[in-house]
Amino acid sequence: MSQDRRNHASDTGCGCGGEDAAPAPPVRNRFYPGKSMDVRHWYIEQSYHRRTAATLARLGLGPGVLCGLDVELGADGALTVFPGVAVDGRGRLIVVDDQVRIEHPNQPTDCAGDPKGDPIETGTVVLRLCRHECGAEYARMPVVDCEVREECVPSLTLERFSLRITAGEPDPVGLTAAQCAAIFPTRPGPHFDRREEIADTVEHDCGCVEECLALATVTYDPPDAPDLDAVTARPVVYSNRVLFDLLMCLAARVDRCCADTTAPPRITGLWPKVGTGANPDTWRAFVAEKRLEIAFDRPLVDAAFDAPDAWLGLWQLDHLGARRLTLTRAGGAFTHVTVPAGGEGVAYTVGLQSEGLLTSTVFVVGSRVALGGPPRAQGPDGLALDPDLVGTALTTADRNTLWTLTPGAPKDTTLNTLIDRAPLTAVPPFPSGNGTQGGEMHVFTPFPPPTLRDEERAPRLLRVWPEGGVRLDPAGASRREWEHFTRRPRIRLTVDRALADAALADPGDWVRLFQAVREGDRIAGFRRLELGGGVVAEPEGESPAPAESITYTFEPAGVRPTTAAEPDTRFLLQVRSSHTVPVPPRGADAPTLALDADFLGTALDNHTLFSIWSGDRHPLPPLPGGALGARSTVGERLFDGSPGGFLHIAFTVAPG
């Protein structure tokens, strides 16, 4: 065979290789005067355009029916396929120019359309449309070299089609229910990014898919009553015009639903900065200026600003008690918050006494708005402010108590434990709101403690293992860690200073591990696993521990092993470092301060976490797919710079 003919025969013109093949760069002719255009170069010229068009059609449009190709099931059981156009899995055009009748659709066929195997008596068959090429207009090819004899060859290629019958169910079309739920969750979290979720959820590889297209399925159950489905399994490619019309229909529906609905006003900015957005400089500036600033996305009725005590509060909390600070409306330029276009802001002078601050002081800013306000938006809708934002760990009872305090009154010393429940590791960002008018905001900003020398500060939690948000999988990159955990279940806590022996001997007072109890596809509860005493050990199967740190290993008893027949097993770890626990984890050397451990690693609320900790039968909140909303601890700081704290994480162990 000549080289030109070998090149022609080896190329399919599909524009891609196998399913995992990398895209091939296109090749085209480069012309110059006197260039000889032999068969190979003419083929390159044609192949360049064919490959480009096929690649764009395959990856841009996707395989599917462009028009027509309807399928009907006759009373005699025969199928009729009507004319139409489609793009196959390699991006090539398929044109059916006439009706085709299939007398026995229950008979599977091969690529040539010949019977293959026995007819299907009971079950499902798939009607597939395939591209088929055949030669036409044969001509005599002259002898061009010593290897080829004179022969007749086709001078044209007819791009035709074939219909094939296969047994079994077709591949699913479109996104799965799980993919749709991930992209369009019922309640998106504050950091949900739909564009990022689509990129993580929807496959977008370069490989080819099945060449033949599924046009319809016929199910014989019972055998004498075939059921035709020409919709579910059929991929369809809609034109831009049709897609635009669909978008316009959707837009009209949204307009009808939302034309008379105005979003309630929200808080877009707050000073002093709260949570992790605060730093020592901002804390000191707030104490020095004694000024509170708030920005809103819509103008509010001014009268509410003159009487803030009904809906706005600022409290000073420390280990000696709590008191509510006075707020007096102030003027001047906004120096700390940015008022958005179309919105407005308000500022207050805070009745704060700087000399009364302690190193444990935190400030809590709260807003409670009833359904009708105040405050309310200006304009005909008059919707109440939507302040909803959970930024503290204070319970409803705690917050109710704070709201009963009189602004400017002396400190209430009976409320000296509220400070332990106020801080959260991460505070959701502004703007506030859950989309409905009224609600409650509570956020905190701590006062910076004095700079301590290393030998004077509390021990810090540097790392946990298994890490939060990790999935230990025997088939994945975490196989080594999976082997270490399944062979000998244990958890490790790495700290920068040694802990006292008393806390290590009885760790159940401050660290507890729970294994999820499942009912079907949901987590019904957690059972506590008893932990043995903490033992100093080198990390095994993990990355090296930080320099000059100590790693303690705790081995749980009663871990139920994972099996191939069971779903992934989830574990919940809680660390409560507080003076409220019987034996808190304190440093072994002076000063004997409580372990500094702070990280919110799950989506469980504080009441649910405490109920799990204490063994109460508290029903879990809805968890789609049994997920706990686990956050990764890799690269995260697990302490906040002050003694004590609360950490909770979750990790998953896959079955072997």
Mean of the pLDDT scores?
Answer: 84
Question: What is the CATH architecture term of the largest domain?
Answer: Sandwich
Percent strand: 25-35%
Query: How much helix is in the residues?
Result: 10-25%
Radius of gyration: 35 Å
- Assign the CATH topology of the largest domain: Immunoglobulin-like
From the spread of the alpha carbons, the general shape counts as elongated
CATH class of the largest domain equals Mainly Beta
Secondary-structure class: alpha+beta
Q: How large is the count of helical segments?
A: 11
Major β-sheet annotation: 7 strands, mixed
**C-alpha end-to-end distance:** 54 Å
Number of domains: 4
Number of strands: 30
Low-confidence stretches: 1-15
Region (Disordered): 1-30
Question: What does this entry look like structurally?
Answer:
The chain is 17% helix and 28% strand. The longest helix is centred in the first third of the chain and has 23 residues, at 39-61. By secondary structure, the chain is of the alpha+beta class. The protein is elongated. The model is unreliable at 1-15 (pLDDT under 50). The protein folds into 4 domains: 3-61, no CATH class; 64-171 and 210-244, no CATH class; 267-446, no CATH class; 454-653, Immunoglobulin-like. The strands form 7 sheets. Strands 21, 23, 24, 27, 28, 29 and 30 form a 7-stranded mixed β-sheet that branches.
Blueprint (SSEs and pairs):
Layout (H helix, E strand, L loop, with lengths): L2 H8 L28 H23 L2 E5 L2 E3 L5 E3 L2 E4 L5 E4 L3 E3 L20 E19 L9 E17 L9 H7 L10 H8 L11 E8 L6 E3 L10 H19 L8 E5 L8 H10 L1 E6 L6 H4 L5 E7 L2 E4 L2 E4 L13 E7 L11 E8 L19 E3 L4 H9 L34 E8 L14 E5 L5 E2 L6 H9 L3 E5 L5 H5 L5 E9 L2 E10 L3 E2 L13 E5 L1 E2 L11 E9 L21 E2 L5 H9 L30 E9 L3
Parallel strand pairs: 18-19, 21-30, 29-30
Antiparallel strand pairs: 1-4, 2-3, 3-6, 4-5, 7-8, 7-9, 9-10, 11-12, 12-16, 13-14, 13-17, 15-16, 17-19, 20-22, 22-26, 23-24, 23-28, 24-27, 25-26, 28-30
